[in-house]
Amino acid sequence: MTLGGVVFMGMKKHRVGIIALALAGLLLLVGATYWLQRAEPATLRGDSAQAQDVTVVETARVLSVRFPAEASAVGTLKSNESVLLRPETSGRIEAIYFKDGERVKRGALLLALDAGVQAAELQQARANLALAQANQRRNEDLFQKKFISQQALDNTRAALKVQEAAVALAQARVDKMRIRAPFDGVVGIRNVSVGDYVKEGEDLVNLEDTAILKVDFRLPEVHLNRLRVGQTLEVRSDALPDETFSARLAAIDPLVDVGGRSISCRALLSNQEGHLHPGMFVRVQLAFGERDTVLAIPEEAVVMGSTPSVFRVQNGRAKTASVQLGQHRDGQVEVLEGLQAGDIVVTSGQLKLRDDQPVRYGETHDVL
User: Fold this and answer.
1) How many CB atoms lie within 10 A of CB 234?
2) What long-range pairs does 116-120 form, CB within 8 A, spacing at least 24?
């Protein structure tokens, strides 16, 4: 091999070595860059970088407060007495004696059906009764004079009683053609007019006693031992937001609903001024006194899920804590289990949080 060949081979090996070193340096630079990027949040970016991972939230402190022992529910108003008037027999409407929405007294005549046939039957029955009465008087006189037997007199008496019953039956048929108010109340909007032919059982008009209203509602069975007939309760309606009505608990159903574990209750509410109407939706609140040393948090602090939970702040981090809740009042909710007095809970910003995430918050508001 010549000298020139040796030099060429040496230069070739040198060039390969340089390329290999360059590739190794490039790989080392890429690896270092990747490692630095992974380590930067914890080492290189410092406090300013860590601050970007901290979630800003609002918080409240849990305090032991006085909390009223009360129960809330939703209910429905019903008339004290309610009936949908229907005829007991078919016939043509002869007259209507009320105006829609008018207040009527018990026994007032509301509608009359054509009772021509029934009136004729009554007149016939009365004539037969008069004849039977005359026969009875005549036979009693004859019996005193020993002209007829006791059996003949008894037959006359029996015939008299049959005719008296016939008159009563005919009178009842006539009365059924007259529809009267069964109690004091307000009539609704009628569905018929004079001249209409109505069938037996057809709807005519409703009658509602609204001077006193029934409030039907349900409560959880845990309140059963604290319920007493005669307790007062407050009733509010969304239709009348500025008014509060007082009612009295009148009845407690002895049967607890198995499906919902609830108790059916009924209260009575005076409605002399007529502000409320049957069928309205109302909110009911019963007070059982006040309790001390009750833990409460704002309702907005609760994260609803399969079980209620909150984010409790400890050492600058948000920790998920399951809670058992009690009664609600004025935007606050009672905490039965899961928190202690003095704990700090997140009230705003929960959607951005995860368990053990760093948080930053300003002034903590106390629950009052």
Assistant:
1) 16
2) 118/170, 118/173, 118/174, 118/176, 118/177, 119/174
pLDDT confidence band for 21 (50 / 70 / 90): low
pLDDT over threshold 90, residue 304: no
d(CA 248, CA 285): 11
Give the pairing of strands 55-61 and 365-366.
parallel
Give the residue carrying structure tokens 């979630």.
55
Buried b (16+ CB within 10 A) or exposed e, 90-120: ebebeebebeeeeebeeeeebbbbebeebee
Structure tokens at 97: 């004696």
State which H helix or E strand residue 127 sits in.
Answer: helix 116-144
Q: Where does the pLDDT of residue 66 fall: very low under 50, low under 70, confident under 90, or very high at 90 and above? A: confident
SS3 121: helix
Q: Of 279, 276, 265, 285, nearest to 212 (Cα)? A: 276
- Global pTM value: 0.60
Q: Are strands 332-337 and 324-329 parallel, antiparallel or unpaired?
A: antiparallel
- Structure tokens given for 361: 């918050």
With CA atoms as reference, report the closest residue to 344 among 90, 146, 60, 83.
60
Tokens 């109407």 identify what position?
277
Collapse the DSSP code of 46 into the 3-class scheme (helix H, G, I; strand E, B; otherwise coil) and give the result. Answer: helix
Q: Which two tokens stand for residue 133?
A: 């009465």
The residue-averaged pLDDT of 230-247 equals 92
Element (H, E) at 32: helix 3-39
CB neighbour class for 284 (10 Å; exposed up to 12, middle 13-18, buried from 19): buried
End-to-end CA distance of the chain: 101
- Asked if 67 and 336 count as a contact pair (C-beta separation under 8 A), the reply is no
Cα 216 to chain center, whole Å? 9
With residue 158 as reference, give the H or E element that holds it. helix 150-175
Question: What backbone phi and psi angles, to 5 degrees, belong to 264?
Answer: -85, 130
Reading the block at residue 294, the tokens are 């009750």
Q: Tell me which residue of 254, 280, 253, 251 sits closest to 267, measured CA to CA.
A: 251
